[in-house]
Amino acid sequence: MTDGRIALEFLAAGTSLTPRADTLLLVSDGCAPDPAEGWAGVVMVRSTPTAFAQHAAGCLCCTPRGGLAGVLGEIFRQRATGGQKWFTRVAVVPPPGQQAAWRADVAQDVLAQARFCLK
């Protein structure tokens, strides 16, 4: 039974990837899959994603979101508005040695947790 969130799975760099038409692939720059066809889409993410800047006063409207969480928010918006091919799963391939940091980025973001289910 599913709770309606989009499944989000982290894969190790260098993992043999089998394309799935229902899966959006998020890959770190420099870790492009071969081949890139057969996925719902392939999105390149900078190796060191940065958070949004805060106002000087540190208001809550600009609480920084992690780079990967920000990317997930953007692809969710694109999916909802028809700007991205429909997907029901997301596979993330972070740069080597960064999986724990990228996973923590998503786990600490309330909006990402509301929309995506970490596997």
Main beta-sheet annotation:
5 strands, parallel
In total, how many beta strands? 5
Query: How would the global form be characterised?
Result: globular
List the domain count as a whole number. 1
- Poorly predicted segments: 49-55
Give the number of helices. Answer: 3
Give the H and E element order: EEEHEHHE
Write structural notes for this entry.
This protein is α/β, with parallel strands linked by helices and 119 residues long. It has three helices and five strands, in the order βββαβααβ. The chain has one domain (6-47, 64-118). It has helices at 67-81, 99-107, 110-115; strands at 6-10, 23-28, 41-45, 89-93, 116-118. The longest helix is centred in the middle third of the chain and has 15 residues, at 67-81. The chain starts with 5 loop residues before the first strand and ends with a strand. The relative contact order is 0.29.
Summary keywords:
5-stranded parallel sheet; 5 strands; 25% helix; 119 residues; alpha/beta
What's a concise summary of this model?
This protein has 119 residues and is α/β, with parallel strands linked by helices.
